[in-house]
Amino acid sequence: MTDGAASPSDLNTAVAERLDTLKSWKVTYWTPLVLGLLMMGDSWDITVVGFIMPSLREEWNLSALQVGAIFSAGFAGQMIGALLFGSLAERFGRMPVLTVAVLAMSLLSVACAIVHDPTLFALLRFGQGLGFGGATPACAAYVNEMAPTVSRGRYFSTFQFLMISGFSLCAIAAAFVIPAWGWRAMFLIGAFPALLVPLVLWTLPESPRWLARLNRVEATNRALARLGAAPVDATLAASAVLEKPRMPIGNLFARDLRWLTLSSCLLWFCTALVSKSFATWTPTLYVDVYHLSVEQSLNVAAWTGVAYGCTPLVFAVILDRVGRRPTGIAIASATLLVTASVALLGNGGGLLSVVLIGIGWVSSGSSFTLLWPYTAEVFPTKVRSTALGMCSAVARAASALTPLLVAGVLTWTNAIGAVFAMLGAATLVVFLLWMFATREMARRRLDEPAHAR
Fold it and tell me: Where are the beta strands (DSSP E) in 91-170?
């Protein structure tokens, strides 16, 4: 259907067809570009503590328990923020929630740069985590709801490439900024997303799909007009089912969504447990276990971060062709091979273990990256942001557990092999879930029934 054709009988379908056929620059290029840049700050601020930790530990003489507590404080904030803000985005809209979350995490990044007390630093990281956790589900839901059906994998991957570039840029910057200006400069740089918020609000409207779900046809048409689309038929409001905006966490456990919710949460938990173990502990393990210098550790991590940052470019090419499930299965298989190998090599793996851990960091991180577009597709619009928030909260819980769990295993066994055996078991669960508990979403319209083709 084109913009001038007769309107279909359903408001949500009409909006979907408008967005699928719209060639506006705001939809085709600008949305994934500007929101990817905005969320680049999110990935920067999430990962920065892993790169500054060797310097922070030396300056403040932190114990292993204090290091783990600082890591966990940020992840705990992300867990609560994802659960709370993801639901709020269902009630108040994607844009207001995204704006508040981004401004909060940016301002608290500045605060982190000026404190001198480990306890206060951990509290600020918790508050900053609320912003991290809240921004991502709202933004991911918005981008997915704007994406054309036939190229949704490429569209979302473009957004993700820019979004997770913060990981790579943080890794590269850490190797230069920390030795020259100290770790505090990393947090000052991380406040840049606040500068982009006015530009986002000026150029992009609220999600038309979200407005259509609420039967707000006039607001839907205003949003479509800002994107350059023709309005839908106003009489469609009479046939649409009005859903009052609320925070429908309980809807995720309704009979038709219960299994999807539980299996998705388990998939996110195990994937995050593995990927965040690699992301947060790799620089420290390089120093403590494999005896690299801090500078060498940061340089190796920088190159690894670059490789990880390129994974969305690969996804942009393969997701719409190969599909989501085969990609997930392949990545889980690679990570399983790495964790098993490092577990067998143990503390004596040397350079080989350093290389394998770098590969595992990339593969496990890309597995986590894949979950965002897949989950945004597989859940319906009425609970999409809530589902992303719930799954993200579960992942943040795993992330909060990860530093303490890895530190505990290392303290108890003094064996790196035991840590990677644990990660291998979690990766096996991820592999089995991709094999037996997911469904393919490539080229399937959002909200299309599972049996439809």
Answer: none
Burial of residue 296 (number of CB atoms within 10 Å: 0-12, 13-18, 19+): middle
Identify whether the C-beta of residue 11 lies closer than 8 Å to the C-beta of residue 119.
no
* Sequence spans of domains, the chain: 11-234+253-436
CATH code reported for the domain at 11-234+253-436: 1.20.1250.20
Tell how far CA 166 is from the center of its chain: 12
Question: pLDDT digits over 199-254, tens only?
Answer: 999 999 999 999 988 888 889 999 999 998 888 877 665 554 555 555 567 788 88
Q: Which of 388, 402, 291 is nearest to 46 (CA)?
A: 402
Neighbours of 365 (CB within 10 A): 27
CA dihedral 260, 324, 37, 142 (to 10 degrees): -40
Q: What pLDDT digit, counting tens, does each position of 330-380 carry?
A: 999 999 999 999 888 877 767 787 788 888 889 998 998 899 899 989 998
Which of 265, 273, 245 minimizes the C-alpha distance to 403?
273
Q: Please tell me the distance from the alpha carbon of residue 405 to that of residue 193, in angstroms, as a whole number.
A: 32
